[in-house]
Specification:
Distance between the termini: 82 Å
Structural class: alpha/beta
Strand order of the largest sheet: 2-1-3-4-6-5
Length: 524
């Protein structure tokens, strides 16, 4: 057996044995040994092999599968520029502590710096953004590399010949086994205060919603969440409720417990600063967010010690301001971006998977959706980028009976090549089409000279024609009624709903009016 075949088979066999079930592959020559070995494993029913022609999209597709399964997902590519296309996904996976295994094929070490075709320095190419990095031409023990979370890089040097020279049944007797994860450290949290809040970032720092709800109950805490579709008891419309400085001061907590990150809502971040004591709970604080500050920093959900009784008058104030926020939203236009987010959140059936794009969609859901607890939500919140969003949603869809995604039009166009290789999984993408970067119309730069060219970036495209050009079914909706009808239909595969929205400036005015109405109501 040649060395490349031996290295590939050892790698694939070990990965199957430690529980790998899904593999994402981009075609190439240097990764032929791995491609053939994984294909043979799929023929034996040992893995599911997903082929994506674009390495950047392939990596985000693998990230989506990892988010859906909580398992390591290998993504396999050839040498050269193919490897560099993984970088955006590596950064997202690193900051989200998602399980992504990068298997990059390389030329032998002797060919580096010699001018050899398609050969660069792939060793340690991802720097500190991977938890482990290995450069090898011989089989190595893989189990210890995949015992934690976060991206791992294995750079495999394949020498010619690249094709197998035998037809042995090398997969005979291979069986899956689960990797045993290290038990989290146990903490105790001493609490005697009555005004406590629990603030939960969108990815929940990897914790289950049930664990967080129990902690909120133990703390007798007000629950503030970026993701209102996982926690029915959360305060509704928190970014609006906390938008006024006087309200933040009046509701200032004695204790703020923060799970994960809260990087989008400026109002929530300002409110956290009002707390007398802050506790952060996030495993990433150990090595990724190591400069994070708080009174205490924990890596797992603690056991609460102390007798806690909520301050009832303080809780009643929360209810009062929540009511004012609901009133301010009541007159919000029925066909607007915030209303679209609220309508999608309300109309989805139980246990549906929903991927939420960064920029405005994730903010609109937090601000306008009514809390519920039965939608399974995902987002790329590690760095909150708009790249790879279609591919991530497609990866998630491989493990759910029905999946939806809400994307802004620029995020949609940024990953439009993903439509060239649609899967057969049921995925409905709702595109908020406001002809450009709507988020910027709500930020301080909205009035700068040259705004449309350097921030608004109108695309001027007929998205229905663009999608149809890929052979993907689609429809255009222009009202809340049409959207409701579209959401009731069941589509067998990929379907795109293009929601033509009012212009970006008008939507920003709608948002400003909601905040102004809220501010007026609380001063009456």
């Amino acid at each position: 057996m040649n060395s490349s075949t031996s290295l590939a088979r050892s790698t694939v066999r070990q990965l199957i044995e430690i529980g790998i079930e899904d593999v994402v592959l981009s075609p190439g020559s240097r990764n032929a040994p791995l491609s053939i070995a994984f294909y043979q494993a799929e023929q034996k029913g040992l893995v599911r092999l997903h082929v994506r022609i674009d390495e950047r999209g392939a990596a985000f597709f693998a990230l989506g599968i990892s988010k859906a399964t909580g398992k390591y997902v290998p993504v396999v590519c050839t040498s050269g520029t193919a490897v560099a296309n993984y970088y955006p996904t590596v950064l997202e996976a690193y900051h989200s502590a998602n399980k992504l295994l990068l298997l990059t094929a390389d030329r032998p070490e002797k060919l580096r710096r010699t001018g050899s075709n398609q050969t660069t320095i792939q060793k340690n190419i991802f720097g500190e953004f991977v938890r482990q990095s290995v450069d090898t031409a011989i089989p190595i023990d893989l189990e210890h590399l995949l015992s934690g979370s976060g991206p791992v890089h294995i750079n495999l040097q394949f020498d010619e010949p690249l094709l197998p020279e035998d037809s042995s049944d090398w997969l005979s007797g291979v069986k899956h086994k689960e990797i045993t994860q290290e038990a989290p450290k146990k903490y105790e949290l001493q609490v005697t205060t009555k005004r406590n809040v629990l603030i939960v970032g969108h990815d929940r720092a990897g914790f289950e919603a049930g664990e967080i709800e129990r902690l909120a109950s133990d703390l007798a805490a007000v629950l503030i969440v970026e993701d209102p579709l996982r926690f029915k008891t959360a305060i509704a419309h928190a970014p609006i409720l906390l938008s006024d400085e006087r309200v933040r001061e009046e509701l200032a907590p004695d204790l703020a417990v923060i799970i994960g990150r809260t990087t989008l809502s400026r109002a929530t971040n300002a409110y956290i600063k009002c707390a007398k004591r802050t506790v952060v709970i996030d495993p990433r604080a150990k090595d990724i967010d190591s400069a994070r500050s708080a009174t205490e920093i924990l890596s797992s959900i603690p056991i609460v010690q102390g007798r806690i009784e909520a301050d009832k008058p303080w809780i009643e104030k929360w209810s009062k301001y929540e009511h004012y926020a609901k009133v301010a939203i009541a007159n919000y236009p029925e066909w607007s971006e915030g209303s679209l987010a609220a309508q999608v959140a309300e109309d989805l059936e139980e246990d549906i998977a929903l991927f939420i794009s960064s920029s405005r969609p994730i903010r609109d859901l937090e601000a306008f959706a009514k809390p519920r607890a039965d939608v399974i939500t995902f987002a790329n919140r590690g760095l909150a980028g708009i790249d790879g969003n279609i591919s991530t949603a497609m990866g998630i869809a491989t493990h759910f009976g029905e999946t939806y995604a809400i994307l802004g039009d620029l995020a949609f166009l940024h990953d439009i090549s993903a439509l060239s290789h649609a899967t057969g999984d049921p995925l409905t993408i709702i595109v908020v089409d406001n002809d450009g970067g709507g988020i910027f119309s709500t930020l301080p730069q909205k009035d700068v000279d040259g705004f449309e060219k350097i921030f608004g970036t109108p695309h001027g495209l007929d998205l229905a024609k663009v999608v149809s050009g890929f052979g993907v079914s689609n429809e255009v909706v222009t009202s809340a009624k049409e959207l409701k009808i579209a959401l009731r239909r069941i589509y067998p595969g990929l379907h795109v709903i293009i929601a033509k929205m009012p212009d970006r400036k008008l939507n920003a005015e709608y948002l400003a009016k909601v905040l102004a109405t809220y501010k007026e109501s609380i001063t009456l």
